[in-house]
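[recover] target loaded
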């Protein structure tokens, strides 16, 4: 049996337009099925194959859900519009202003405190599963390391902004 992904246009197979109603599709199928029915052409393999293709087209287009799916696959989607590249900051720094550098410092401190608190809680917690425990300790280490890094970068950038070094 033919699949909906073949090069055959199912609307053309039935001899109807893509805007045909369900009733028009059914009527076209009945008309063609009378002509191509295998009982009218015993032993003719070509007619039998055309009848199978006609039946497949009707089975797909005669049901609204499968017809909508076929129409979506039949009509190629337009290519997405290319995205504009992000514009780089003038001096390449994430913390361009003193306010952003201070926000990085406070965010880093918050991550440090959260990581230390999570470590204290985890030290007294028995998860019963060594894999879970290891995963939680990895999270704690990441929180502490990222907090320290963010705080350090914020302090460094704030110092450079204050001295006018850029």
């Amino acid at each position: 049996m033919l699949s909906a992904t073949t090069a055959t246009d199912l609307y053309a197979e039935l001899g109807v337009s893509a805007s045909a109603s369900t009733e028009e599709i059914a009527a076209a199928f009945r008309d063609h099925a009378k002509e191509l029915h295998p009982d009218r052409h015993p032993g003719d393999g070509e007619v039998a194959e055309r009848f199978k293709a006609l039946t497949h087209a009707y089975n797909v287009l005669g049901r609204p859900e499968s017809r909508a799916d076929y129409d979506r696959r039949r009509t190629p989607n337009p290519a997405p519009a290319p995205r504009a590249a992000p514009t780089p900051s003038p001096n390449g720094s994430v913390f361009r202003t003193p306010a952003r550098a201070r926000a990085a410092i406070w965010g880093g401190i918050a991550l440090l405190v959260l990581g230390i608190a999570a470590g204290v809680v985890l030290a007294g917690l028995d998860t019963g599963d060594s894999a879970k425990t290891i995963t939680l300790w990895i999270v704690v280490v990441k929180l502490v390391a990222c907090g320290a890094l963010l705080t350090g970068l914020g302090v460094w950038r704030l110092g450079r902004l204050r001295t006018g070094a850029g």
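[recover] notes: The two ends are 70 Å apart (CA to CA).
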